[in-house]
Prior knowledge:
The protein is mainly alpha-helical. 68% of the residues lie in helices and 6% in strands. The protein has one domain. It has helices at residues 7-25, 39-54, 61-91, 96-105, 110-126, 128-136, 148-195, 207-216, 218-231, 240-250, 259-270, 300-330, and strands at 2-3, 274-280, 283-290, 332-333. Helix 1 (7-25) crosses helix 4 (96-105), helix 3 (61-91) runs antiparallel to helix 4 and helix 7 (148-195) packs across helix 12.
Amino acid sequence: MSYLVQEPLFLPILTLITAILIDIVIGDPAWLYRYIPHPVVVIGKAIEYGETWLNRSKNSRITGIVLGAILSLGIITLASALGLILSRTLGQVSHGWIVESILASSLIAYRGLGTAVRNVAKDLAVGLKEGRVSISHLVGRDPESLNEAGICRAAIESMAENFSDGVVAPVFWFALFGLPGLCAYKAINTLDSMIGHKNDRYEAFGKFAARLDDLVNLIPARLAGLFYVLAALFVPGASSTQGLKVMLRDAGQHRSPNAGWQEAAVAGTLGFALAGPRTYPGYVVDDPWMGDGGRTELSAPDIKRALKLYIGAGIWMLIAVSAPLLITGLIPGIL
């Protein structure tokens, strides 16, 4: 009797699982990046150089859109090509998959995001001033406009949204296309974070990058929301039923086509009200609340409760990644 566990399936999944576990246990080693630049920093420098060269105020709107698309496609192509070269090279080396796992782990931000959110809760317990400093490293809102409840909501919303962008989406694209897919995704996401803004400088130049980022996050965002709903099954006081209900009802109210799925899921499962009006430097976003009827006056213990949901969502993601390996390892195949 033979089984369907063959190396073409087994090794990529093992590489991805190992990458996730390395990130969970070690995260990004800060000491290492004092000597070599983080891959995202390299991508960011390339984007910064290209944007400075191409994005001129004298350009027409159409020219700006076209040049922004050319820069975006160039950065994505280079990142994908580098990922492909590394993957093919390591594939010829004994145990090269371990090195590939280490490289991939540097582009997954599960531990780093959890630590950053946990630090907000810890600093907020010391005082409001410390909490504002901590949240300023995590979100772009005006920290001076945030009271304790505002800081807590900002931290939880960032945890919810970035679980998709920083964790589920990189894992999803690696699962589909290996290291080249992961590198391409990180290039797209970095492009969006740097030039995908709706302001005078980037509205045209970053339009292609912003729309492409929305597209590549469509499935991961919904998976991330589902992982949060499933995680509520094992978090005391959380409700998967309410989380699913609120997610399906309120996700579309968010200004992002993707972020609402995770934020609404977290709001519903934990009985919070998230999103709503928010103050950024120079402007105010007047969004509707998600999870209406939920609590808005949150405190540091609520962040810690949300982090339990985050841990559970990570476990469900790991189960989903491992599922093909488990299924094919248990079902006899006829070859």
